[in-house]
Amino acid sequence: MPFGPIIVEAMRNDSTRMDVQSHNLANSHTSGYRALIPVHDGSNFHTAINQMAAHHRETGNPLDFTIEGDGYFVVDRNGQKLMTRNGSFHIDREGYLVNHDGFRVQSQSGDIRLNPEAPVEVDKDGTIRQSQALVGKFMMVKPTGNVRQAGGACLLHEEGKDWTAATGCEVHNARVEHSNVNPLTEMTDFLSVTRTFELGQKALHVEGDVNRKLTEEVGRTR
Asked: Domain residue spans in the chain?
């Protein structure tokens, strides 16, 4: 029985896992990033999203925000609504609160526009005020189905699914959330899978050598 096809399939799965682990390691310092998880369905690997919360760190920047709870901030990418746990925001030249990609952060009523000269006050429920005047309230949502990565720390719902309002969440400013990637675990797993992949390569070479020698032997006996 030729083992080549089995080895090739195993190597293909290992390659997928290495791609996932490399992507996670590259984003281990991306605030709010949600790690990819390789999931084996019995024959192949596909990816899911690890939505576990990560640790928060103080920044002193009043426009950095975190959500305590299972909610996500919402940003607008050219009309497409994305979810993110990366609350590192700033005010753009037009006065809108945006993320590092320039996507506008969403309140329950739309884009958030601020006076860059006035301090920003945010209540734990996400209500935003400047000079005691109400500006809006952060839109906070949670997914109702599977999500996929949409670049950086942004997530997108799977087709045909929607989100629901996140309840029981608290917003804190002057701090950001870490990536939930565990670099040590990812690196250990990456090295282990790499070794397995290399063993597969060697096994293919050995099988090729054996088949070649058998072919040569058969040719000499004829």
From this structure: 4-20+183-217, 51-177
